[in-house]
Amino acid sequence: MPRHRTTALATAVLAVAAGAVTTVTTGAAAATDPAVTAAACESGYVALTYDDGPNPSTTQALLTALRNANARATFFNTGQRVQQNPALARAQVTAGHWVANHSWSHPHMTQLSAAQMNQELSQTQSAIAQATGVTPRLFRPPYGETNATLQSVEAQLGLREIIWTVDSQDWNNASTAQIVAAANTLQAGGIILMHDAYQTTINAVPQIVANLAARGLCPGMISPSTGRAVAPDGGSTPTDPGPGSCTATYAETQRWGDRFNGQVTIRAGSAAISSWTSTVTLTAPQSVSTTWNGTPSWNGSVMTMRPNGNGSLSPGATTTFGFTVMANGTWTTPTVTCSTP
C-alpha cells in the first residue's frame, strides 16, 4: 500500500521511548574492540526504520540484507500483520532489531475518536508482546498524522511518538538509487522512513550502510529521552557468531513502577553447540527476584544462567530465558554475554 506523509510534519521528530535490546557475541567472532567501533562511528548514528511489516514477501529478505550489512533497524509493525505473521515479528527481535507500534490497521488516526485510537494502539501492543515477548514503548502514527488527542492516548499507554527526518519515498515508487540518495542526506541523529514492502528498499541496504560508513555514520537506536538516533545501549551489530559460539541478546519486555522483566535470547552460531552459559550483569542496587527457563547462580551483581537440562542447539537455533529485576531506583539496562564449553 502506498504511504504518504503530512507535509507539515515532514521533518518533525517527536520524543520516543523504545525497549532496550542489546546483543553480545563471544567465541571465534567476538565483538570488535569498542575503540575501533567508536572510531568507525565518529560522526554519529542514524536510525534506519521500516514501517508496515511484518510482510511474508519481504521481511526475511530484509533481515538477511541487514544482517549481511551488520546493521540494526527499528521495525514499526502493524498489529494485524503481527497477528498474521508472529514468527516474522519474533525473527525481527531475535536478529537484534527493535520492534515498535504502527497501529493495528494503518488508519488516518486523527479521524478517529479517542476510544478508537486507544483500541488501535492497545491491540497492537498486545499482539507484538504476545508474538515477541517485547512490549513496545515507541509509536509512529500512520502517514505521520498526529494531534493532541492521539498524543494523550499514546501517553496513557506508555508510548512516545516518533516521525522522521528523511523520507525515502520508497512508497512512491522510488528506485533503489533514489532511496540510497535520500539516505545520503541523513545527518547524525536523523531517522529515515522506509517500508518493509519493496524489493527496491531491500536492495538499497548494502549501499546505504556503506555510504554511511564512508561518512563516519553508523545505524543506531532511537534514544528514549531525545528521540534522536544514538549508539545502541551497549550493543553490537547482529553478526554470525561463528562456529562453536553463541550470542546473547537482551530485550526488556515489560516495566512497572518498581521493576521490569528482561528476556535473553541465546543463538548458536554456524555450528551446533552442546551447551551454553550466559551472564547477566546488573547495576547496584538492582536485584533479581524471579527467573524462568534456566538455572541461575549469583556472584554479587552478576547472575550466571545455565540451561535446564540439555542445552544443545543446532546451527542458528535459539532458546530464551527470562527474569524480573527489582530496580530499587536504578533503571540501567543489564549487560549480557554468552559462552560455550
UniProtKB/TrEMBL annotation:
Residues 239-341 form the CBM2 domain. It comes from the Bacteria. Residues 44-220 form the NodB homology domain. The keyword Signal applies. Residues 228-248 are annotated as: Disordered. Keywords: Hydrolase, Metal-binding, Signal. Residues 1-30 form the signal peptide. Residues 232-245 have a biased composition (Low complexity). The keyword Iron does not apply. This is Peptidoglycan/xylan/chitin deacetylase (PgdA/CDA1 family).
